[in-house]
Amino acid sequence: MKKVSHSSDACSLAKSMEILGEWWTLPILQEALLGTKKFNDFYNNLGIAKNILSVRLNKLIEEGLMEKKAINPNSKRSYYLLTQKGLSTATIIIALIQWCDKWILSPGEIPMILKDRLTNKKIPNLKIQNESGDEINIWDIITTPGPGATKSIDYRFK
Amino acid sequence: MKKVSHSSDACSLAKSMEILGEWWTLPILQEALLGTKKFNDFYNNLGIAKNILSVRLNKLIEEGLMEKKAINPNSKRSYYLLTQKGLSTATIIIALIQWCDKWILSPGEIPMILKDRLTNKKIPNLKIQNESGDEINIWDIITTPGPGATKSIDYRFK
């Protein structure tokens, strides 16, 4: 990334981290993306304390990333389901997994492989692409102030 | 994502978050991706306490995401530069920014726009693609145990 002149704005990044950065939140979302729906399955699969799981699930519901729905109209039991907003965290979670698998673990240590169901081939690493789909270098990204840039951000872009 | 049978493994995700999840670490990396190199520029641009900035930069050096290099052979002043491992966090940071801009902020609140320097067009949102470059649906991703799957993970994949 290259600044137009002199700037950064951690604002969007910081806002995402406020919602997603609490311990256990991303593993719960990953578990939901893997298909888990029931409280006890989250509990058993994650090895998380029930009270913390409950707090985190309620926060995710409050933030609109998950919703709680009765398994059927006569049941008191519920499913915890991802909303579109929750499903959209998949790119964040996959980016974190791929970075770890490439830079932290040795090839023999990789615990889980993500594959395309239709081709049974490994999902390639996420790429930063331009509008035409060409991969672009990080230093070819420039930043400009958006409509919500504050005065201090505007100043830094000058 | 769809499980082959019944599993999740938060391991790679958790390992990434151990390194990147501390408060200020991602904003420092974003600032470095935006071109900041000097301690005082990180300090001024981020509004972070000097002692915390120092601890975080040293941790990033220790973890191999950044390196400290003298500005020139005769200088006592240093640049903090991203390594390839640090540069590779760009997909994580961009995924977090794009998620916030799409799901948290209204269009008028977006503080910063990422553009391709060559075309001056906005960088599109990251896509999950298969080997051929086709975008795939999150539910068409399946997970299989990797070479480093532990016994408990293997069991859960059965």
Topology diagram in text:
The structure is a homodimer of 158-residue chains.
Chain A (H helix, E strand, L loop, with lengths): L1 E2 L7 H10 L4 H9 L5 H8 L3 H13 L3 E5 L7 E5 L1 H4 L2 H14 L8 E5 L24 E5 L5 H7 L1
What keyword list fits this structure?
two-stranded antiparallel sheet, two-stranded parallel ribbon, 41% helix, disordered N terminus, homodimer, 158 residues
Provide a quick synopsis of the model.
The first copy, chain A, is α+β, with helices and mostly antiparallel strands and 158 residues long. Chain A contains 7 helices and 5 strands, in the order E-H-H-H-H-E-E-H-H-E-E-H.
Detailed description of the structure:
- Two copies of one chain form a homodimer.
- By secondary structure, the first copy, chain A, is an alpha+beta fold.
- Chain A contains seven helices and five strands; from the N terminus they run βααααββααββα.
- In chain A, the strands form two sheets. A two-stranded parallel sheet of chain A has the order 1-5. In chain A, strands 2-3 form a two-stranded antiparallel sheet.
- In chain A, β2 and β3 form a beta hairpin.
- The longest helix of chain A is centred in the middle third of the chain and has 14 residues.
- The first copy, chain A, is globular.
- The N terminus of chain A is likely disordered.
- The interface between A and B is large, with 90 and 90 residues.
